[in-house]
Amino acid sequence: MKTILFDLDGTLLPMDIKQFMDLYFHEMYKSFEGIVDKATLVDHVMKATETMVRDTTRQTNEEVFMKAYEALSGADMVDHKKRWDDFYGGGYKHVKASSKTSHQMIEAVALLKNKGYQLVLVTNPLFPKDAIIQRIVWAGLDPEDFAYITSFEGNSYCKPQLKMYEEVLEHLGLKAEACMMVGNDVDEDMIAGQLGMTTYLVTEHILNRGSGPIVVDHQGDYDDFLKYVKALAPLV
């Protein structure tokens, strides 16, 4: 195992997801106030996101989202894109209040990097790269620590599609068997095990929508994961 793939929200970045969503749309609406009511904006964004998550074409997630949003809203997309840019460059920073940092995960990332492991950030690519970079910083981490970061603009599939993981592996020229996926979502993150990746379920902010048994290679809270990393053999 030479490469560690990390989920972001709830894994590297402890987060209250309900508070995140509430703040996210509260701040987004400030950039759209006066041209659309908040309930309609939220409805169109969520429905376009659902379309993006289900899509299996090679279009980027951004392309799929924008086409779906335009079809739903009939909006001037040039204007709307500018407003989203303004939001991510401004009010989005206040959404940080929904998150914390984990000193264990910060230390684990530093240790893995020092031991010679390649680190990859595999967040669900529903957001522009700038928004993801900001959340990496909120987590107390350096975006430069990651060899690759999934994003709205750069990827064509979303979790829990296996195609998303296959796209990342293809881009980096990696074999699944040489990788470990670390995440807190049983359905979206641990599915990578079906490709042959080693899996580590972080239980601190676990998301589990099913009722069946959880099948993973390793699991534990932040303290457990840090112990696991400390015990890994260095590659350099």
Overview of this structure, please?
- The chain is an alpha/beta fold and 236 residues long.
- It has two domains: 3-16 and 99-231, HAD superfamily/HAD-like (Rossmann fold); 17-96.
- The protein contains eight helices and six strands, in the order E-H-H-H-H-H-E-H-E-H-E-E-E-H.
- It has helices spanning 17-30, 38-54, 61-73, 77-89, 103-114, 129-138, 162-172, 222-231; strands spanning 3-6, 118-121, 148-149, 179-183, 198-202, 218-220.
- It has a six-stranded parallel β-sheet with strand order 3-2-1-4-5-6, with helices on one face.
- Helix 2 (38-54) crosses helix 3.
Q: State the separation between the terminal residues, measured CA to CA.
A: 13 Å
- Main sheet overview: 6 strands, parallel
The CATH topology of the largest domain is given as Rossmann fold
CATH C-level class of the largest domain: Alpha Beta
- How many domains would you count in the coordinates? 2
Elements, N to C (H/E): EHHHHHEHEHEEEH
Compute the average pLDDT.
96
Uncertain residue ranges: none
User: What is the helical fraction, as a range of percent?
Assistant: 40-55%
